[in-house]
Specification:
By secondary structure, the protein is mainly beta. The chain has 2 helices and 8 strands, in the order H-E-H-E-E-E-E-E-E-E.
Length: 192
């Protein structure tokens, strides 16, 4: 593990020393889809992201992305899990922390507005919790996943950019957990 951390630090420092880089922060909203929408179906407004992009060519960046999306929904009724049925108000929570390596391709080298597309791959730490009264079921696990994205970079001045993107996050099934998928819509700032 120590060797992996040192390797990652050296790669990041190498990118910083030899290429132009951008770092950013974003506000992230999420829409659960697939099995995730069965657990929490409502559009979610709570999340943020951090990322770094390092130009390896005029149009290509390599980098990283992380963040936090928290999802919540309360439901009333009877809920059956296995041989157990509970009736009442159930509170469902998801906390999702992605840690992804990314690659992006910008369609234009220069210009006012730069559309781009890319993909991220890495791990997701996902904590799923259902609570009813005093009882709670919690499942926390690491998942491998990927996240294709499209976006637009809008320069504000020579050192900063405004951006908007949409990212489809897909975390694969691990053990007895479900597959998690959700769309994030992000608005933020990147600076050189």
């Amino acid at each position: 593990m120590k060797k992996l951390i040192i390797l990652i630090i050296l790669v990041v420092v190498g990118f910083n020393a030899n290429s132009q880089s951008m770092h950013g922060i974003s506000y992230s909203m999420a829409l659960p889809v697939g099995e995730t929408a069965d657990f929490i179906s409502k559009y979610q407004w709570r999340g943020f992201g951090l990322e770094g992009k390092y130009f390896v060519d005029d149009n290509i960046t390599l980098g990283w992305q992380t963040g936090w999306n928290t999802m919540y929904e309360s439901k009333s009724g009877s809920f059956t899990e296995g041989t157990r049925t509970r009736t009442g108000k159930q509170y469902n929570y998801l906390n999702i922390f992605p840690a992804l390596f990314t690659a992006n391709y910008f369609l234009f080298e220069d210009g006012d507005t730069q559309p781009y597309f890319g993909v991220g791959a890495g791990t997701y730490w996902i904590e799923q919790r259902s609570q009813m009264g005093l009882f709670a079921d919690t499942n926390s696990q690491w998942h491998f996943g990927f996240a294709p994205e499209i976006g637009v970079l809008i320069p504000m001045n020579l050192q900063s950019n405004f951006y908007i993107n949409a990212r489809y996050n897909y975390a694969l099934k691990t053990g007895d957990s479900m597959t998690y998928s959700y769309l994030t819509f992000n608005v933020g700032f990147l600076w050189y």
